[in-house]
Design goal:
Blueprint: H1 4-20, H2 26-39, H3 44-50, H4 52-55, H5 63-75, H6 79-87, H7 92-96, H8 103-113, H9 118-126, H10 138-156, E1 158-159, H11 160-175, E2 180-186, H12 187-190, E3 195-196, E4 199-205, H13 208-216, E5 223-226, E6 231-236, E7 239-246, H14 251-259, H15 262-273, E8 277-280, E9 283-286, E10 301-304, H16 308-314, H17 330-335, E11 350-354, H18 365-375, E12 379-385, H19 399-415, E13 419-427, H20 439-444, E14 447-451, H21 464-472, E15 478-479, H22 497-507, E16 510-514, H23 524-532, E17 537-540, H24 552-561, H25 575-582
Parallel strand pairs: 4-7, 11-12, 12-13, 13-14, 14-15, 15-16, 16-17
Antiparallel strand pairs: 1-3, 2-4, 5-6, 6-7, 8-9, 9-10
Helix pairs in contact: 1-2, 1-8, 3-5, 9-10, 14-16, 21-22, 22-23, 23-24
The structure holds 2'-deoxyguanosine-5'-triphosphate, calcium ion (2 copies) and zinc ion (ZN).
Residues 187-188, 196-198, 200 line the site of one calcium ion.
Length: 583
Amino acid sequence: MSRNNEVAGVLEEYADLLEAQGVDYKPNTYRRAASNVRDYPEAVEDLAAEGADAVQRIDGVGEAIASKVVEYVETGEIEELEAEREKLPVDIEELTAVEGVGPKTVRKLYDALGVQTLDDLEAAAEGGEIQDVEGFGPKTEQNILDHVGFARQAQERELLGDGRPIAEDVRAFLADLDEVDRVEVAGSTRRWRETIGDVDVLVASDAGEAVGEALTAWDRADETLDLGPTKTSVRANRLRVDIRVVVDEEFGAALQYFTGSKDHNVTVRNHAIDQAKKVNEYGVFDVSEVDDPDAGQRVGERLASETEEDVYDALGLPWIPPELREDRGEVEAAAAGDLPDLLADDDVRGDLHAHTEWSDGDLAVEEMVAGAAEFGHDYVAVTDHAEGPGVFGDSGLSDDDLREQAEEVAAVREDAAIDVFHGVEANVDADGNVGDVSDDVLADLDVVVASPHSGLGDDGGDQTERLIAAVEHPHVDVLGHPSGRLINDRPAMEFDPGALAEAAADAGTALEVNSNPHRLDLWGSVVQTAVEAGATVAVNTDAHSTSEYANVEYGVHTARRGWAEAGDVLNARDADGVREFLD
Ligand code: DGT
Ligand code: CA
Ligand code: CA
Ligand code: ZN
């Protein structure tokens, strides 16, 4: 994995610090460059090693930014950034994570009150100090109090989309060591939780010390947090990576234990106690003949420990997929033989939400269609943004644009290797109207995705009616990223999942599981409600370039966290099956 994300973060910090000082234009230039660095398919450190000219191959990166990138990769610092940090010694990323707090606000609050951290900000707001600062008032202060908690939570957890590549990397690195017999990712990363506190990896080895030493020398480890024969932790790109080393015979029990969730493990443990068994990270034990089962860790007769399957089997349970291990009824279902036959990666046959350069996508219709075919899909829907509030810039399509695009899509369809649906991503306004495309254009399209793009966040009160109105719109086929959340960035809007699910099931409208790792919207518990109500789910990527089709795995595993089976998923059907649903 590359350091693009890290370098982008540094450029964004510089942009924020410049903006805080009142510098015009330049901050946005740096932000645009940062965003392109983040998305660039090659490792920025490799470009930097070639020199500033190579870095300038990235869109929006000129001479000045390129030389800073080279300086950072070579020395770990940027002199001008250090100077800005001295002028405004605050944690600007943490502070600007609070909704409504921008760089200029940070500057004012530092000057007036010495606010440097989230803790300082919260204390100042709670103490009523902010409303007395010139240019601020009680409303700003209340806004800060309302949003500081979300920002704090966001600080503590990283996106699964950032954690999984690191977990995969460390797994591959450890698997290559001679001392390592088995290695698996565990914890929330293995359960595909949308955010993770840290990355847990379990290793079977007789040489824990050597494995720990090797991890600290891993080229992606920035810092060693803990080093020992059974437990070693390093920091890699902000994330804490914990490895635990166990003996091979107990690997299965340890994997079950360290995969969690804690609540799942508690229910499993109680299930064991009911059978006079004991389960822990060392195995499953028959303690029916034991006076004091708590006398030690390995008491009684060991029934299982080598594999996870053995562990569950010794408790009379089938193996439970990690995505289900959230204590939402999976142990009871397993005991009753009622576990769902979960959606699998290769069940997904197509993508019903993708953008092209007609709106804010990167590529032509033809390229997006070819990319979908290459990815292995049987069909793809082109669903560019309709014009309307909340749509980035003026990139949305009018009725006329959509009619014109229909001709291009028809032409591409002629030569395409896969089925091509023509659609639109229309906007669900604050009242639930889908008003920016006329009804006759909507009627002519194969598929209509309707998504909220304005009035987002959690300040608007309950939005159930708004979402239900969109779901019940006669032309709407899919409700896109229903909650509007951006994980760690913007809270989901408030809505009643049960009511939405029932309305969607009745109207025959699919609810999207948007696979973008920043969204994962809908998510596990709500998908579970939807599926139980008989609603159909669509696992879409919302791709803006062909590389994003691969995000579908995040959507699939999110749908699995919601107990979804292939039969619940619209785009697990073949193209004719999709047509049937759309008609
Ligand atoms: P995270 O890191 O906050 O995203 O969540 P997890 O689930 O990865 O939790 P973590 O890293 O604290 O621990 C990994 C697993 O180890 C956890 O899912 C279950 C197990 N575990 C850790 N501490 C306890 C405990 O006190 N009791 C039980 N039953 N299990 C624990
Ligand atoms: Ca963890
Ligand atoms: Ca951990
Ligand atoms: Zn979209």
